[in-house]
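Work Package 3 (structural annotation) set out to generate three-dimensional models for the target panel prioritized at the project kickoff. During this period the team completed the workflow that converts sequence records into discrete structure tokens, so that structures can be stored uniformly alongside our sequence database. As a representative example, we reproduce one entry of 204 residues exactly as it appears in the project archive.
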Amino acid sequence: MVLDKSDGTLVSETESTANPATAGVTAGWPDFGALPGWLQQELRSDHAGEYGAVMIYRGVLAVSKDTSVRQFAERHLLTEGQHLALMEEIVSRRGRTKLLPLWRLMGWLTGALPALVGRHAVFATIEAVETFVDHHYEQQIQRLPAQGTYASLRETLLKCQADEVSHRDEAARLALPRRGILLRAWCAVVGTGSMLAVIAAKRV
């Protein structure tokens, strides 16, 4: 279960040992401040992305009454909460983006608005978000060596990526194969918004 902290950040009560994304991964992360600048930026955007993902599913659950959608969101919220807890271990508090209050709002709206429309809009939205996240993780993974100082970090990103791909594929199976122009436009906005959010999180 993910709870709000008094400063507006999120934390998971789930122990890391129960987290499929951390299974077999060493908890001794490199000092965030000593990481290369590009890697700090990428991990900062990862933390912001997982924060936003938690808020997306909270937005869905706040609005949707559809049983299948709620079950989908509850399961994926658990995984995203575990990812967020992991990123909060890796990214120091000082290293996180200052835009988290905005992420909170925009993430919630990204989940709540399609939930107002219906189940297929929710699933199409999740597919669009996770398609972007898959590519975003892949770019980072390709830059990290499989052996050496960042091997554990790379393995962790691979596990998180696998979870996101699973979410994407499940959402794609549940969504309608044919989509109207408004839903296609919405998904394009979601994809572009995700890209701009990453850019902003890296810089601020």
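DSSP finds six helices and two strands in the chain.
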